[in-house]
Amino acid sequence: MDCVTLSSKGQIVLMKGIREKMGLKAGDKLIERIEDNRIVLKPVAPLSELFGSLKDEGDFKGKKTDEIMAEIKRGWD
Taking the model in full, what pTM does it have? Predict the structure, then answer.
């Protein structure tokens, strides 16, 4: 297991092998959260990958945007 160092600016560097395995490149966005005393990073899909993914309104029809966003967020947790 490789070790990373936290810079004075609060930055870390992900090892090349991890970046390649996850398909990450400079500028990609990651969601960070704490889970069982661990830092978990999850890549955020670019909006272009999401276009057309909600063709079926399903359970969202008639709901307010805030309600829909809360449901989506619960699905990520």
Answer: 0.53
